[in-house]
């Protein structure tokens, strides 16, 4: 069974940076596309970023393009989300997600849907103060 363990998060100020990590165990990491979603209080879970199993393609929500970078280290079974120039609107619980996709991620329309992902981490709280 796939298990996703997240680390990172906390309280930062606007303009700061933060890196989230997500380690996958239980299956072969390099067979899984990885993604990040976030959920603010009272709002639906929204797509942030995704990266293909080989790391050769990545996708971002418009709201984080140019500020966030998703990456992965298949030797360490870990995906990362580097977040720079953080804004208060980036606050929320960040969830790591995995999708069995050894041949590449589905269409971008699909990967933005939380229901299309197979496994989820427990979430990490990020609060950005102004």
Task: Label this structure with key terms.
130 residues; globular; 7-stranded mixed sheet; mainly beta; 4-stranded antiparallel sheet
Specify the biggest β-sheet: 7 strands, mixed
Query: Helical amount among residues, as a percent range?
Result: under 10%
Order of helices and strands: EEEEEEEEEHEE
Hey, roughly how much beta strand do the residues contain? over 45%
**Number of β-strand runs:** 11
* End-to-end distance: 40 Å
Count every helix, treating DSSP H or I runs of 4 or more residues as helices. Answer: 1
Would you identify the regions where 5 or more consecutive residues have pLDDT less than 50? none
Kindly name the structural category: mainly beta
Can you describe this structure?
With 130 residues, the protein is mainly beta. Helix content is 3%, strand content 48%. The protein contains 1 helix and 11 strands. The protein has one helix spanning 108-111, and strands at residues 3-7, 10-13, 18-25, 32-39, 46-51, 58-60, 68-73, 78-83, 92-100, 119-120, 124-129. Strands 2, 4, 5, 6, 9, 10 and 11 form a 7-stranded mixed beta sheet that branches. A 4-stranded antiparallel beta sheet has the order 1-3-8-7, with no helix packed on it. A hairpin with a 6-residue loop joins strand 4 and strand 5 (46-51). It is globular, with a radius of gyration of 14 Å. It starts with a strand and ends with a strand. The model has no long low-confidence stretch (mean pLDDT 96).
